[in-house]
Amino acid sequence: MLKSVMAPKIAKPMQLPHEVEMPEGVPAHDPPARELDVTRARRETPGVEHVAHFNNAGAALMPEPVVEAVISHLRLESEIGGYEAATRAEAAVDGVYAAAGRLLNADTTEIAIVDNATRAWTAAFYSLPLGEGDRILTGASEYVSNYLGFLQVTKRTGAVVEAVPSDPSGQISVDALADMIDDRTKLIAITHVPTNGGLVNPAAAIGRVAGQAGVPYLLDACQSVGQMPIDVKAIGCDMLSATGRKYLRGPRGTGLLYVRRGLAEKLEPAVIDLGSADWVEKDRYEIRPGAKRFELWESYMAGKSGLRVAMDYARSWGLDVSYARIQKLADQIRAGLRDIPGATVHDLGVEQCGIVSFALDGHDPADVTKALSEQAINTSVSTANMTRLDMDSRGLDSLIRASVHYYNSDDEIQRLLQAVNDL
Ligand SMILES: Cc1ncc(COP(=O)(O)O)c(C=O)c1O
């Protein structure tokens, strides 16, 4: 026991598939290949031995290096104490900010690490000064928790929320958005990839409109970060929220918020503690600089360590390479479903990502998901209350959601399609 206290284990330097711009001390590898090494991806994903996992938009299967990072930090905490472990593993834990910066093309001071995407989104949203008559513009596929925030804040302040119409493809109409903006518009809040389907909203085109009008732009990138390349500068968003457990393949209970430098300093978080502010005199506090003002002091250190690895791991494949594979696999599923009598694909948009939504005539989506899970095939159900504006307007109650990741195999897709067909 004494021996393990003297020499506690900390995360081994991870072996990344292909490394670009590695953190200090880790040797550089070849640049990302143009074709993803699926065999390696599956070898590093223990879960593929047990399930055909098509619930990556719920929580993806973690790769081995992420699991290692989390467990080794928890072990260290159990051996030397939680605070002491944080000090000992400071580089591994604090490296999460730099990893997020590399992933999103942001500065470390523009990143807050929080416990999920909703914490990130609400931290930004509830800090915005909104008043009577101010307008919030959103899209038809906004996520339930964001919309609940709109409803609460508009009730409290007299601000209003309005949904920008979608274009014929189902994505947000950028022209309609531009037409709707006036000098009472105080926020554009859009979901990049909705919870209930393959739609990818035109985030960068929205960013150009928001930038020209000088309206703050909050992007819910919960389902897009880790799935596709995301560059906050190229998109032009002012704030962005994301979660660890979905396409990033990080641990549950982790999330992040990006707030553009210069904007963070103007925002006072709705909730502060000793992590977000300093108590400098009896009657006075000072908010911390940068995005860290949106964090609270206590946090999930093992999760941060795992999230750091997950972000570097995601980048190491080349996000354009992994996204191309995700899109190819999702298209394969859509094409296969179209050949199954009674199956209808419901994905919207011009660009479609790894989330496939469909219905099966005469079958309750919950029953389909259950029947698939009995065959070790994981899918999920999207119910109307998750994206009410969109689902109500399409007259949909619920859909089956099969969300692919780059580590899914052709065999797994055939198993899924066969199982749906057999139903
Ligand atoms: C589009 C979208 N935004 C936000 C969230 C919330 O993420 P979290 O559960 O990490 O708070 C989800 C979760 O499914 C989502 O699909």
- Which compounds are bound in this model? pyridoxal-5'-phosphate
End-to-end separation: 55 Å
Query: Quick check: average pLDDT?
Result: 93
From the spread of the alpha carbons, the general shape counts as: globular
Q: In which order are the strands of the major sheet placed?
A: 2-8-7-6-5-3-4
Tally of alpha and pi helices: 15
| Helical/strand content category | alpha/beta
Regarding CATH, which class of the largest domain?
Alpha Beta
According to CATH, what is the topology of the largest domain?
A: Aspartate Aminotransferase, domain 2
CATH superfamily of the largest domain: Type I PLP-dependent aspartate aminotransferase-like (Major domain)
Low-pLDDT residue spans: 1-13, 18-29
Number of E strands: 15
Percent of residues in helices comes to 25-40%
Instruction: Provide the β-strand percentage band.
Output: 15-25%
Q: Rg from C-alpha positions? A: 22 Å
Give the topology string: H per helix, E per strand: HHEHHHEHEHEHEHEHEEEEHHEEHEEHEH
Number of domains: 2
CATH architect. name of the largest domain = 3-Layer(aba) Sandwich
Most strands sheet:
7 strands, mixed
Describe the structure.
The chain has 15 helices and 15 strands. It has 423 residues and is of the alpha/beta class. The chain folds into 2 domains: 92-316, Aspartate Aminotransferase, domain 2; 319-422, Alpha-Beta Complex (Aspartate Aminotransferase, domain 1), CATH 3.90.1150.10. The structure holds pyridoxal-5'-phosphate. Pyridoxal-5'-phosphate is lined by residues 116-118, 143, 145, 191, 194-195, 220, 222-223, 243, 255. Pyridoxal-5'-phosphate binds at residues 116-118, 143, 145, 191, 194-195, 220, 222-223, 243, 255.
